[in-house]
Design brief:
The protein is mainly α and 245 residues long. Helices cover 78% and strands 0% of the residues. Helix 3 runs antiparallel to helix 7.
Length: 245
Amino acid sequence: MRQIVGETLIVTRKEFREQLRQPKDVLRYIWFAIVFGGLFPLTNMGQSVEAMVVGSLPWLAYAGVVTASGTTVGAFFLERQRGTLETLLATPLSDLAIFAGKVIFSLFISLLSMFASVAMELVAVNAALLVAPHGLRGAAVPFNFPLLIYFALFVTGPLVLVYVIGAGALISLRTRSIRTANLLGMLSTLPLAVPLSLVALVARPGLNWGFVAALTGAMVAVDALALRVALGLFSRETVVLNIPN
């Protein structure tokens, strides 16, 4: 077990080093935070605090989903283009360590993108309230989100991101075109409506603790299935044969 953990950390650190060598990707993640956190939620200014909170949640979550999909789908294709994938596969690291290292990397980056979006929105909304103190009905200064929003974003949210990462890994192993992989990666988020709808049947739908807690439990089961299938299909042979030069 200790060996698997150590090997996983090696892969994760390698992924971070490779990411830092891609300034365009880093700038794209910063742009996500500005757009999804600092611009889109401001369209709710002039309404109530409740409207701001409910309207902001999809944008903040989407920042993480887009980042998770992009980093996961590109983890194999883009690394092959850089010529570093073969080096990684030639090491004695286990398939589980390579898979887990890439998943942890994608999850961390997507959570960081979501966290940056939240921080950007708090700065943007509070700056707007300084200029127009009555621009948000019922708002206290400084503006902040209720605890439920933070729970939904950083407890339930990571479970949603794990599904996106698992689906992205599965797509990466079965497609031979980066454009197809990116498209399927975004489309793979649509099945999330299934657990959302099932939970809505047994819990009162809406932004409340009961619904969010039930959705959290449902996503644990969904994640276990998605990761199990993706890991079951992961092997050095599958990666090499399905990724074009």
